[in-house]
Design brief:
The protein is an alpha/beta fold and 431 residues long. Helices cover 40% and strands 26% of the residues. Strands 1-15-14-16-17-18 form a 6-stranded mixed beta sheet, sandwiched between helices. A 6-stranded antiparallel barrel has the order 2-4-5-8-7-6. It has a 5-stranded parallel beta sheet with strand order 10-9-11-12-13, with helices on both faces. Strand 2 and strand 3 form a beta hairpin. The longest helix has 22 residues.
Length: 431
Amino acid sequence: MQVESWKEPLLKLPLDELKKAQCFVTDLIQTLETLHTTTEEPIVIFPPEEPIKIEERRRDKRFDMELEGVCSVVKKQESEVSKDAPITIKDISKRGLRFITNQSFMPSDILVVTFQLPPTMVSGHVYKNPQKKVYVEIRRVAEFPTPTGLKYDIGARSIESERVVEVAKEEENRTLFNKRLAIKGETRILVVSIKEALSKRLEEILLKQGYVVCKANQKQQAIALLRKNKFDIVISDIDTAKINEFELLKDTKMEFPHVGLIVEIDTIEDWKNILSLGVDNYLTKNFNDEEFNIILESVQKKLLYKSMFGIDFKKSRLEGLNILVLSRKEVLKNLLCSASKEKGLKLYFVDDTARALIVLKRYKIDFISVDAEITGREGCQLLMNIKKDFPNIESIVISQNLQERCDYLVSGADNFIVEPIESQEIFAVLC
């Protein structure tokens, strides 16, 4: 048998050394393919990701191969699968698999993967039932060009079949969420203000739109009403909130963490002072009806989503949070990096929207911070795309221009901070 010249030295190596070389080459190819999806400068990740050691992979009984199969996305609405897409499996382990396909998927997509195992695997194991059907959740998506078009290198982790049922339930909740949001009569609002003119104006606006409204002019009366009746949102003003060192806001959030808080403020400094007290959003002084409706709907969506998807209102959400920061400002990076280890955060820094989308596809992101200065009008479109493709990701916009606030909130931003900022503002929003 004629052997190509470059293969001859390899044939002289022991089998275990060849297996090491196989793992090395597979990792090298994967790295080179991933580089095609990035620009010249690498994406900065803090803290750096730790590579999986080759020894750990071998202990996990990982098999490097080229194995043909098909996969289908589990339709969340129907718990059924979509049309089969051909795949080439490059790597299999108990924890999951890696495959190449010409069809794009999103992180968190649930797939059912079907493939035929060879009679005998590399390790010598013989499978009585070589036809395999597994459920996986996508964790990483890398795009790379080929002569025949774009292909996708996808990493997915194994999940139990019960998780598929959970996904279907989540989608049902999301559909119900949209229906409930449209029924304003189900939202009960308590207006608490010592300003009679403001209280009367808010009542008129809310009643005209079909909300259930009650009024109070002091903290004791408000707490009594909250204990007696179910309210979703409390609206107050900064003068009323300041009484007894913000006692109204503190007691409301402590006893009723599920209730949203909206406060009319005089200055941005007022907002920074009350942000850490659990206030969800604010109205500017002399607000108009359009601003009021945008703020109210934004808070309504946030609270309704949390209640329907089982998020604990009392639990701190900082530990283990994956945050994507879209900014070129070193001051913001330094603020977050200094506290990341203490808070248990993992930060991804990017400086343009294209890179932001790459990170969103590759990694599981919980929260995104967007610097309006570098995105411009692209920022609004970016947020709209994020809410469409990644509805679970919360977002905050940082800007020097307060006039942009309503535009970003309509586009899907969960909060808006006016520069200059401090680290406690960011963390107050995250909590």
